[in-house]
Write a structure and sequence with these properties.
The protein is α/β, with parallel strands linked by helices and about 300 residues long. The protein folds into three domains: about 80 residues, Arc Repressor Mutant, subunit A, CATH 1.10.10; about 90 residues, Periplasmic binding protein-like II (D-Maltodextrin-Binding Protein, domain 2); about 100 residues, D-Maltodextrin-Binding Protein, domain 2 (3-Layer(aba) Sandwich). It contains ten helices and 13 strands. The strands form four sheets. The protein has a five-stranded mixed β-sheet, sandwiched between helices. Strands 8-12-7-11 form a four-stranded mixed β-sheet. Helix 1 crosses helix 2. The longest helix has 28 residues. The radius of gyration is 31 Å and the shape is rod-shaped. The protein starts with a helix and ends in a 7-residue tail after the last helix. Keywords: DNA-binding, Transcription, Transcription regulation. GO terms for molecular function: DNA binding; DNA-binding transcription factor activity. This is HTH-type transcriptional regulator BenM.
């Protein structure tokens, strides 16, 4: 039984006659009568009693009327939902993200996603780079916001979302210059609070290499795998952290954010969206290509 036959059935019930239903549907009356006949044949029952006054539903027709209305409504809703998903305006998207994406990139992305696709439900999973790489492989997440460079297996797409310079997060009592800056030598003397080497190997190596090239022997005083934990360690006097400059928008007790006056050799802080390449556009493509503004 075809969906259009169910619509024809409802039209005849609602309009009380085949002729009026055919006018409303915009089809020829004989075609409508033939379609109703096929429906009656499929069901093995008579659905309408026809007379000069019109077409009255039989008890069998009345018995299935509510079920037919619900079925057609559900089919219409499913078709509407499929079209919205196809346009990238509805559905569900699971996003993995490193903790540093929480404070700047994610809020801007969520605002823009709600503007472009308000029907999409976004599920967030805070994960390390390594956890996201595994989750992309298993399908646990649809897209990851990750520190780059990073190695992720499979056929993936990548779009850089952020490239930012580093600033120093120092304890409140730190000896800061009159212009609010600190030097590489001061950072080396205080020791570094860093993300674990295994978590961000390229970022970790880039900072230590810049220190060595500047002639500064530096110790990693403390490792922490989340940005808020890094800041807590700094506030506790464990050392100095080098973090992206947007961190200065935060007000974290016991911590000051300073420019590194001779930090030109320090690496940039890069954040990228990484997601599986598909033959047709997905919600991950929509999210990855949001206009987040220049940073």
């Amino acid at each position: 039984m075809e969906t259009r036959h169910l619509r024809y059935f409802l039209a005849v019930v609602d309009h009380g006659s085949v002729s009026r239903a055919s006018e409303w549907l915009g089809i020829a009356q004989p075609a409508l009568s033939q379609a109703l006949g096929r429906m009656e044949k499929d069901l093995g029952v008579r659905l309408f009693e026809r007379s000069r006054q019109g077409a009255a539903p039989t008890p069998a027709a009345l018995a299935i009327l509510e079920d037919v209305r619900i079925s057609v409504a559900r089919i219409d809703a499913a078709a509407h939902r499929a079209r919205e998903i196809g346009r990238g305006s509805a559905g569900q998207l699971t996003v993995g993200l490193v903790s540093s994406a929480l404070f700047d990139t994610l809020p801007r992305a969520l605002r823009e996603m709600r503007r472009q696709a308000p029907g999409v439900r976004v599920i967030l999973r805070e994960m390390s780079n390594a956890e996201q790489a595994d989750a992309l492989q298993t399908g646990e997440i649809d897209i990851g916001l990750m520190h780059t460079p990073v190695a992720v297996g499979g056929h993936m797409r990548e779009r850089q979302l952020l490239r930012d310079r580093l600033v120093a997060a120092v304890p409140d009592e730190f000896d800061v210059a009159a212009d609010g800056t600190v030097s590489m030598a001061q950072i080396a003397q205080a020791g570094l609070v860093m993300y674990p080497q295994a978590q961000l190997p390229a970022f970790h190596a880039g900072i230590l290499d810049a220190m060595r090239k500047g002639g500064h022997a530096v110790q990693v005083a403390q490792e922490a795998n989340r940005t808020l934990t890094v800041l807590s360690c700094v506030a506790g006097g464990c050392g100095v952290a080098l973090l992206p400059s947007w961190i200065r928008t935060m007000n974290f007790g016991g911590v000051r954010f300073c420019e590194v006056r001779d930090g030109h050799a320090l690496p940039s802080f890069d954040l990228s969206a990484i997601w599986p390449a598909r033959s047709v556009p997905t919600l991950a493509d929509v999210f990855a290509n949001l206009d987040l503004g220049a940073r």
